[in-house]
Amino acid sequence: MRIPNIARAAVNLAGVRFRRAERHWRTATRMAGHLGRQASRQQERMSHAPELARARVEQGRAAIERSRKRLARFDDHVLEPFRIERQIKRVLARQAAAGGPLIAGPWTSEVGYEALYWVPFLAWAADRYGVRPERIVALSRGGTGQWYRGIAGSYVEIFDLVDPGEFAKQAAAKRERGDQKQMALSEFDRDLIRLAGGRLGVRNPAVWHPGLMYRLFRAFWYGDRSLDFLLRHTDFRAVRAVDPVLDAPLPENYVAVKFYTGPALPDTDANRAALFELVQRLAAKMPVVMLDTGWSVDEHHDYSFEGLRNVTTLRPSLDPKTNLGLQTQVIAGARQFVGTCGGLAWLAPLLGVDTLAVYDDDRYLTAHLYAAKYAYRRTGGARFSTLNLKALRAVERPALI
Amino acid sequence: MRRALARWRARTRDVGDRWRTWRQQWAVERDLERAIEGSAPILAGPWLSEVGYEVLYWVPFLRWVKAAYRIPDERFVIMSRGGTGSWYRDISPRYLEALDHVSPQELAARASAGALKQREVSDLDRRLVERASAAVGSGRVNLLHPSLMFRWFAPFWSGHETLSFVESHTRYARIQPSPDVAVPMALPADYVAVKFYGAKSLPDDPAVRVQLRAIVDALSDRFPIVQLDTGLGLDDHADVRLEAHDRVTSISGRLDARTNLAVQTRIIAGARMYVGTCGSLAWLAPLLGVPTVPVFTDAAFLHAHLHLARRIYGRVGGGTFSPVDLAGLLDAGLAIGRTDRVTVGRVS
Fold it and tell me: Which residues contact B244 (CB under 8 A, 6 or more apart)?
């Protein structure tokens, strides 16, 4: 039996106690350090608390503001146009479902909107709502029946129903009211429909009024509808024109030219000089046929190019009832169309004629240029180019050779 | 019955298209919110794509992000190339130069490989982000990558989204050139800045070059010309080199890649007019307050950009923006200037 070494045991026990105490001390020190750091962090956090809270509140406010704006935007730019679209499509469907002739019109506003939007819109609507051409009666002015070929089986000339002077008076009154676009059915429109109905022997005919198109595409012009939306509600087709019947024959090769005043090409000395020079240069290369009417039923007036060689004018052959039809035929036979960016310039590419559309101010043209250039390219229309007189003047004076 | 079915199908397709576009936009918006959350610095970039998209979309988009999410200046760190810090001055003063970390040759190779648009985060982008993080000296940076903007506005460029969508997610403002950048040459007192390069919108063919030379001649009859032909070849557009002319000063060979855009910005800002290919710096010049004449022959890839540009420059009080479509003039057998005294120059 071994005698226990009390001294060694005591030393061992003391060592164990000591190491335990040391461990406890280390733990306590670590804990104290940890708590201290935590406390200082907490203290720092507390000192930044107002700032952090403010930042959080600010972020929250920004999120609320963003959501509010998003909702408002969604309502303005998505729901409202969608509601209008639904209303319009209901009217189109209701009128299409009614029996008897369907009057498409009366078209009494600008030529440009008719060529660029109204006719392609009608083509789309007739196809979408299954209305056969025999049922559709186009009601327009100036002999534009050929624009509606394949869409409308018949055409009623507004100038057969009312005197051009009366028409011009009504148009001027509408302009004064600031209501040149046919957003809604006016009294004058009602009269025209009634007169056209009388001619067709129909009371209360179904009507697709231009206001449907204006209201549907207004969102596109303001930037609230995409180009894709416009293209999904239009059907751009080539327009075929018959040969013109004129007192004097046209040259074999010629450029058709039509310059009129408007916001895109205001009647200024600088513009007049530039256009005169342009026509002169064109005439030096090829005969020019001017499509000037000499009279006006709207606020646009033709520029005059008197005394230029190699320039003939259609003026003697034109009368209000047939002027647009005849101009269409002359453009269709031309090598190129050069004119004010607007009106017939939107039609010429659909006639297969390369077009140079001239402007000085593109403020009111942006959406139309966007739509036209894209649509013509997509539908295989002729080339549509633009000439900006402002740019030309900036680069050189005299401008063109 | 068939018509009704066709109408129903068309309506379903419309709603489906719309729904897909919205879902894409919501996804981008979520990614955007992730990119800016927290308090770490936000690296906006690295921008290595075309100048035009940077000026017309990226910078105004960043302005909108900053305003809509109320992000303080100090959180934004911009990374771009060519010394374009002044374009971002109202977004953040912290600008990192990408060309400090990547060689011009590498950028040029990337451009010629057709990878110019940053539709996704590339290896090069990742490398630059790492360098930027190190330069910022912060452990972590949030990345606001250009691909987000490209995804965001792609439906507009393809005609599926509205102009008002772009307008409500951008903020346009005038740009001031950096006063600290030195122009490495003496400039005439009153000059026109000209930059023509070959592009899809203005192919470098003999007929076009004759016309461009005629334009430069016509301009030089009235004003000295400063031609912004950098000769750096950092993107896929080669400068159209017009013949030497005593009234035309070229900047070729005088520019450092790292500051070339800053210098060109200063030169344009001091010009009485900017005339050039419709693209790149032609989108910047009106924002510098300089009347601009962008020239093109084919607008196929420009429709959406021209539409937007026509709307915004007037609104921010920029210089006039008067595009010239040469195609129509050439079709009509007309020309600007005196083409009879012009001979065809060499292609660069």
Answer: none
Beta-ladder partners of A340: A358
Residue pLDDT, tens place only, A50-67:
877 887 787 788 788 878
Please report the pLDDT score of residue A381 as a whole number: 80
Tokens of A188: 């004058």
Question: Which of B162, B275, B333 has the CB atom closest to A77's CB atom?
Answer: B162
Q: Are B43 and B140 in contact (CB under 8 A)?
A: no
Taking Cα atoms as reference points, which of A360, A67, A354, A113 lies closest to residue A220? A113
Q: What is the pLDDT of residue A260?
A: 92
**Cβ–Cβ below 8 Å for A226 and B14:** no
Give the confidence band of B233 by pLDDT, cuts at 50, 70, 90: low
Q: Residue B168: list chain A partners with CB under 8 A.
A: 69, 73, 77
How distant, in Å, are the alpha carbons of A25, A202, A230, B148 from that of B9?
A: 80, 35, 18, 32
Q: Would you say the C-alpha torsion A109, A113, A115, A120 has a positive or negative sign?
A: negative
Indicate the domain borders of chain A: 90-232, 255-395
From the list A228, A336, A354, which residue is nearest B159 (CB)?
A228
**pLDDT(A295) > 70:** no
Give the confidence band of A316 by pLDDT, cuts at 50, 70, 90. confident
Chain A residues close to B222, C-beta within 8 Å: 396
Q: What is the ipTM metric for this complex?
A: 0.84
Q: Where are the alpha helices (H) located in B82-231, listed in sequence order?
A: 104-112, 123-136, 146-157, 163-168, 206-220
Neighbours of B301 (CB within 10 A): 14
Best residue of B1, B74, B163 to probe chain A, by most A CBs closer than 10 Å: B163
CB distance B43 to B134 below 8 Å? no
**Average pLDDT of span B11-18:** 80
pLDDT in tens, A120-140: 999 999 999 999 999 999 999
CA distance A112 to A341: 9
Query: Is B159:A227 a contact under the CB 8 Å cutoff?
Result: yes
Q: Which CATH class is domain A255-395?
A: alpha beta
Query: Which residue ranges make up each domain of chain B?
Result: 2-168, 192-341
The top-level CATH class assigned to B192-341 is alpha beta
Structure tokens at B95: 């600008």
How do residues A154-184 score in pLDDT, each as one tens digit? 999 999 999 988 888 888 888 777 777 888 8
Smallest Cβ–Cβ distance between A336 and the set B293, B299, B332 belongs to B332
SS3 content of chain A, % helix, strand, coil (to 5): 55, 10, 35
DSSP assignment string, A218-279: HHHHTTSS-HHHHHHT--------PPP--SSPPPSS-EEEE-B-BTTB---HHHHHHHHHHH
- Please report the number of interchain residue pairs, chain A to chain B, with beta-carbon separation below 8 angstroms: 145
Phi, psi of B156 (to 5 degrees): -70, -45
Candidate from A142-146, A294-298, B222-226, B319-323 with smallest mean pLDDT: A294-298
